[in-house]
Amino acid sequence: MRGKDVAIEWMPFELRPYPTPTLRPDGDYLQRAWKQSVYPLAQRMGVEIRLPEVSPQPYTRRAFEGLEFAKAHGKGNEYNSRVMRAFFQESRDIGDLDVLAELAAEVGLDAAEFRQSIENGAYAGQVQALLRNAYGMGIQGVPLFVIGGRALSGVQSREALEAAIDAAAKSGT
């Protein structure tokens, strides 16, 4: 993104929406996937990450409602980054409203107003509409990058992302 006219908009997506049971970090699937794929990729990319110990994994709907609150207050990227670090580096329970309110405050949002918006469902309809749109587009996994109308699914190299950004800039999309 450095040196490019690019804006990121984080969008919600639930792999296992309620009431589908979420996974347990001590289960075979997550243990195998992280050992075989996530940890080696993170090491190659120089990213500090660990399999969160929260068990079962939290539902993320409240975190996504918090993201919409943060976006409305000009702090979407900061909030999203803080929530990701809290979960994937600190093993914090991002399904817990107390944790989310604390993280929101850390990025400069009013914790009481944040909490009230989640408790009152101020962004619930908006998040539900965004999720319906994602499912309607056939999205089945993350990450997914949409750059100039082109969708790139899965982890992408820096070069692939730069090429997509450059192509979109040249075409004006």
Keywords, separated by commas or semicolons:
173 residues; mainly alpha; Glutaredoxin; 2 domains; two-stranded antiparallel ribbon; 2 strands
Explain this structure:
With 173 residues, the chain is mainly alpha-helical. The protein folds into two domains: 102 residues, Glutaredoxin; 31 residues, no CATH class. Helix content is 51%, strand content 5%. The protein has seven helices and two strands; from the N terminus they run H-H-H-H-H-H-E-E-H. Strands 1-2 form a two-stranded antiparallel sheet. Helix 2 runs parallel beside helix 4. It is globular. The two termini are 16 Å apart. The mean pLDDT is 95.
How is the secondary structure organized here?
Elements: H1 28-45, H2 61-72, H3 76-88, H4 97-106, H5 111-119, H6 124-136, E1 144-147, E2 150-153, H7 158-171
* Domains, number: 2
**Helical proportion, percent range:** 40-55%
- Give the CA-based shape: globular
Strand content: under 5%
CATH superfamily of the largest domain: Glutaredoxin
Arrangement of strands in the largest sheet: 1-2
Short description:
This protein is mainly alpha-helical and 173 residues long. It has seven helices and two strands.
